[in-house]
Amino acid sequence: MWNKPGVRGDWFVDAALAAAVIAFTIPTTLIGYSFSIWGGAPDELEIATGVITAAAMLVRRRTPWPAIVASAVCACVTGQVVPMILAVFSMTAEHRVRQWQYVALAMTAVYFTVDYRNPHSDHSIYLNVVRALTLIYLPAVVGTWVHAYRRLIRDLRIGVREREEIAASEERRKIAREMHDTVTHAVTAMVLNAGMVRDAAEPGEIRELTAVIEDKGVQALGELRHLLTVLRHEEGDLAEGIEAIARLVGEAQASGLKVDLRLDVPQGALPRQISHACYRLVQEGLSNVHKHAPDSLVHVTCEVSGDQVAVSVVDTPDRADPGGKTIRAAPSLGGGYGLAGIRERVSLAQGRFFSGPTPDGGFVLSAWLPLRFPHA
Q: Which of 32, 180, 333, 363 is the most exposed place for a label (fewest CB within 10 A)?
């Protein structure tokens, strides 16, 4: 507990208040300046009352009642009202006691009585009331403002911490999505071509397949380097957009997939974030086809419709060529992060996402995204 600077400072303040109470009570008793509202009180009682009131200041942050009761008794026994001022302020600044107004009024009445009975007072009821309200009730009111201010600061700090945690979590998810989509697609293509190399017999075919593996590795490294550059400098655009969808389809066709593309998006019509989300959806869809349905017919569509862009990857069983060449399926590493990442991308863009089987035994991955990227 003592390692916390705030706690050590609180103890210092409480000790200073306790010392102030001692300074206001015991010396006046020793020099004969104190008085009791019912007459003379033994010095021992006045000193004990001052010490108890000072000790009550040390626990005022835990509970206000010892300081309230002790300060009221101290005022009646010694005639010293300063501890009451400290007690009513602590009552509202530290705890906001329920029905604090009535407690403050009761303490105000005690102050008025002590001040009126004080042999050194002016005995003016008006001035006694003004002093009682000013020195007792007003500190209690000020304490409520201090309490509200402290609570506001505490809530703001909690809110800032929560927002920082949410922002950090979102950034981690963004990085995870980009890393997954970049690495998974490239590695899937590399593993698929490596398997084809194992089955190839012609040297020319082997050289062609290894060249594809090399190209995909270079491409993956380039995308990762670009992603790291964006993350380090907090600027720049994401790597690919709809202009790279045709390349994805071409690579899929080169690996043996039967893919046709319908791309009808005017150049510059999409914000970079929306364009990148379309690219990633097509990339994920083609990767899934490689893994689960390499012999299917695949239809890739990306077109503007009204105020949104529709993008989809649909595969259907190839019943027209049941005896055709079998295409090796890419290995599935599991995890299920791909679809989750696409769903998050679409949700962040305030679009609609759908994935699921089709009636003819295929699978569809589709999204509808607004033409304008939404800002918070």
A: 32
Supply the pTM of this predicted model. 0.48
Q: Quote the domain boundaries for residue 103.
A: 5-159
CB 300 within 8 A of CB 249: yes
Q: What tens digit of pLDDT does each residue of 262-300 get?
A: 999 888 788 888 888 898 899 889 888 888 888 899 999
Separation CA 37–CA 39 (nearest Å): 6
Q: Is residue 17 located within the same domain as residue 140?
A: yes
Strand order in the sheet with 297-305: 258-264, 297-305, 308-316, 363-370, 352-357
In a domain, 187, yes or no: no
Q: In sequence order, which residues have a C-beta less than 8 Å from that of residue 18 and are 6 or more positions away? A: 54, 55, 57, 58
Contact 198, 221 (CB under 8 A): no
Instruction: Give me the CATH number covering residue 270.
Output: 3.30.565.10
Where is the domain boundary, 159, 185, 220? 159
Q: Are residues 121 and 260 in the same domain?
A: no
Q: Tell me which residue has tokens 């009550």.
A: 56
Q: What is the structure's pLDDT at 283?
A: 87
> 22 and 154 share a domain?
yes
239 secondary structure, DSSP code:
S
Tell me how many domains the chain contains: 2
Higher pLDDT, 227 or 105: 105
Where are any strands of DSSP class E within 173-230? Answer: none
Last residue within a domain, chosen from 111, 144, 159:
159
Contacts of 243 (CB under 8 A, 6+ apart): 267, 275
Residues 6 or more apart whose CB falls under 8 angstroms from that of 168 comprise none
Q: 3-state class of 14 per DSSP?
A: helix
pLDDT-wise least confident of 41-45, 187-191, 202-206, 350-354? 187-191
CA separation for the pair 115, 302 (Å, rounded): 86
